[in-house]
Design brief:
Helix 1 packs across helix 13 and helix 13 crosses helix 14. Helix 3 links the parallel strand 2 and strand 3. The protein is built from 14 helices and 19 strands. It is α/β, with parallel strands linked by helices. It has 2 domains: about 210 residues, 3-Layer(aba) Sandwich (Rossmann fold); about 190 residues, Dihydrodipicolinate Reductase, domain 2, CATH 3.30.360.10. The protein has an 8-stranded mixed β-sheet with strand order 10-11-12-7-15-16-18-19. The protein binds NADPH dihydro-nicotinamide-adenine-dinucleotide phosphate.
């Protein structure tokens, strides 16, 4: 049994994580939010109190932290007696936070792959460049580290595992489809951190084709899908984190990621990119000042969290899995639909943040009760997906499954959780 959660970061996703932790604090215990800008942590706490999200009275505190500082992060983990760390800061802090967890014994989670600020789109598989190098250290320290447990990456990895295990004899392809049919009403904005968002699209698009990596260009491959609820939507083949673990763990020859983009987004993106304004490499101005163009663009764009109050419409994200069953071609879509306005009403964030923020809290509950407390580093598809899907069904993210004329809520069988003593829950924290 693990208790007490430290949330790192105070952006749109952290807002959801904090609200969902608060809604489950009878199980999760104390909740701490630590980020670079203290006032943003306080704003989240104020919104939790304003919405009455705390399940029971308990500790809810804000802390200033530079999460690239391993010693400072270790200090906060120990001072707050946190046994679970949910890292939803920028992807640049993953390795330092993971290291702090390894050294303090806390379980680790993130929702995006680690990135070096000065490098874009490294050699595939991306996880091998950073996270997987600490696998042995995690196993040796008995640390549970669940990598990429947002929606995509995260839930889509679990959907793939579920479909493969329960619906097919053989699987030939997995197409992950991410459609945002919502509208924020601004001239131009990104739905999460602009720096992270643009870095996904400025370089080679890697896809997994016939069991090898294939290099593509951004916006080279276009495909229209007819998704439940959101309807027809145009997507483009995009490079994405989950391909870099699913390709290694699932034995499926073709795995692709498709993201929906409107023409307006593509036009603005293309202009910014062609002008060099999306570059991660520093330039020097005439006055001798060194600036990173991408950081300047981020500074002038709307804060993604500020889009939430006016956002309308829905997202639909799912896995279209194709293969064979009983010797015949078979196709299954496992998916979720999320509503921007409903998300805002519940937790003060839009659906992109909501779909990314609920899964790590569901996973925290599974680590807390031991179900997913595996004492090693894993990507989501290596874990039993059933308890995650079942938990999320009760937490605002309902999974549906569609095949052969059936379209229904997916209610997987969940094996009973192990039982744990609850009174000495903090005894095994390594405070040394
Ligand atoms: P935001 O930019 O809104 O928030 C990031 C937060 O991290 C900010 O509060 C920022 O602080 C903080 N931060 C950055 N650097 C540091 C540091 N060195 N020390 C402490 N705090 C730091 O991003 P989002 O909330 O939209 O996204 C959070 C994460 O979730 C990202 O990694 C993103 O890629 C991922 N994500 C995953 C999705 C999924 O489905 N898997 C979907 C959407 C997002 P400050 O406020 O000072 O800038």
């Amino acid at each position: 049994m693990k208790r007490n959660v430290l949330i790192i970061g105070a952006g749109g996703v952290a807002q959801v994580v904090a609200h969902k932790c608060a809604q489950n604090n009878a199980v999760l215990g104390d909740i701490h939010i630590a980020s670079r800008t203290l006032s943003k942590c306080h704003r989240i706490i104020d919104s939790i109190h304003a919405k009455g999200s705390m399940q029971v009275d308990g500790v809810l505190q804000a802390h200033a932290l530079d999460a690239t500082d391993v010693e400072a992060t270790k200090f906060i983990i120990r001072a707050t007696r946190s046994q679970i760390v949910i890292n939803v800061g920028s992807p640049f802090v993953n390795m330092s936070v993971l290291q702090a967890c390894i050294e303090t014994g806390a379980a680790y989670m993130d929702t995006a792959i680690h990135e070096d600020p000065r490098k874009v789109c490294e050699t595939p598989p991306w996880y091998a460049n950073y996270e997987w190098k600490r696998r042995e250290a995690c196993a040796k320290a008995g640390i549970t580290a669940v990598l990429g447990i947002g929606f995509d990456p995260g839930v889509v990895n679990a959907y793939a595992r579920y479909a493969i295990d329960h619906h097919f004899d053989t699987v030939d392809s997995i197409d992950i489809i991410d459609i945002n049919a919502g509208s924020h009403g601004r001239y131009f904005a990104t739905n999460f951190d602009p720096e992270t968002n643009f870095r996904e699209f400025t370089s080679t698009v890697w896809s997994w084709e016939n069991g090898v990596w294939k290099a593509n260009q951004m916006f080279e491959h276009r495909k229209e899908w007819d998704m439940p609820v959101t309807g027809k939507g145009v997507t483009y083949l995009t490079g994405h984190d989950e391909l870099h673990s699913m390709s290694a763990n699932l034995g499926v020859p073709n795995i692709r990621f498709w993201m929906g983009f409107g023409d307006h987004y593509i036009n603005v993106f293309t202009v910014l990119k062609n002008l060099g304004l999306l570059s991660e490499q520093p330039v020097r101005t005439a006055r001798g000042q060194e600036v990173v163009p991408l950081e300047v663009v981020k500074a002038v764009l709307p804060d993604p969290a500020s889009l939430a109050p006016d956002y309308t419409g829905k997202t639909c994200i799912g896995d279209l899995v194709r293969g064979t069953l009983n010797g015949r071609p078979h196709e299954v879509l496992v998916y979720n639909v999320c509503d921007h306005a409903e998300s805002y009403h519940e937790v003060g964030s839009q659906a992109i943040s909501y779909t990314a923020g609920v899964p790590p809290v569901a996973a925290a509950l599974l680590i807390a009760d031991g179900t997913w407390d595996v004492a090693r580093m894993v990507n989501v598809e290596e874990l039993d997906p059933a308890p995650l899907i079942a938990r999320m069904n009760t937490m605002g993210l309902v999974t549906r499954i569609k095949y052969g004329g059936i379209d229904q809520v997916l209610e997987p069988y969940v094996a009973p959780a192990k039982s744990f003593a609850t009174d000495d829950v903090l005894e095994d924290l390594k405070y040394g």
